[in-house]
Amino acid sequence: MTNRFHRILNRMALFTALLAVGMILYWRPFMQVAVANIYLNGVIIGVTLFGVGLCFVHMFRLIPEYRWVCAFKNGRRNVAMPPRLLRPAAILLRGGGRVRVSDMSAAMDMVAIRMDDSRESVRYITNTLIFLGLLGTFWGLIMTVGGFADLIGGLNFEDVAVLDQLQQGLSKPLSGMATAFTSSLMGLGGSLAVGFLGLQMQMAQNTIYSELEEYLAGRTRVRADDENEN
Q1: Cα separation of 93 and 166, whole Å?
Q2: Among 39, 36, 10, which Cα is nearest to 180's?
Q3: Going along 33-175, which residue ranges are E strands?
């Protein structure tokens, strides 16, 4: 595999390792943020871990695809068919000889569609994390507004202990604010982490696509029927 593909994979591993080290070093502050609303923040953490794992699964699935491209470019024609993404191009190249422009365009379009489909799950997880962060924000704001409404409605300003009542009643609004801020922070942080890994996966797919496109361009022949179609 080329250095570019290796660099992308190493970048993903380094980024994930830095996230893990940061969580270990700042474990107590992280847990203080998480327990502000353990249910919603727990869901956000779980979705983030699932998204990170899914990015690496897709990345490791690209390795056999890229090895097939490298083997074909080096002249080895007895290699097995690639798993899924490059199968249309592999079927086109099995016959040997030069490839028509129309066949090359159709094969590359199918490869591009399959690569784009494989990224949809990562995009969905990124959008889900943003949604969960916004959900926590509005949930916390509703708790805050409701808490202040209950607090103000229940105060007796003629009572000398009104300040004590005010201090005790602030716990619910402050809990709502904590929910709003922590869920937003964790949702955006998770979406950034999964989005970065998804971007690296897309760059790796673009590397494979470019390598295959350059190889097919060198084997393409223009025929009279292709020119008439254009």
Answers
A1: 77
A2: 36
A3: 99-100
Residue with tokens 């993903």: 12
Compute the CA torsion angle 204, 209, 211, 214 (nearest 10 deg).
-150
End-to-end CA distance of the chain: 36
What is the amino acid identity at position 3?
A: N
Please tell me whether the overall predicted TM-score, pTM, comes out greater than 0.70 for this model: yes
At residue 129, the pLDDT reads: 94
CA angle, residues 166, 40, 154, in degrees to nearest 5:
20
Question: What whole-number distance in Å separates Cα of residue 82 and Cα of residue 102?
Answer: 22
Q: What pLDDT does 127 receive?
A: 94
Q: How far apart are CA 30 and CA 41, in angstroms?
A: 11
DSSP string, 168-208: HHTHHHHHHHHHHHHHHHHHHHHHHHHHHHHHHHHHHHHHH
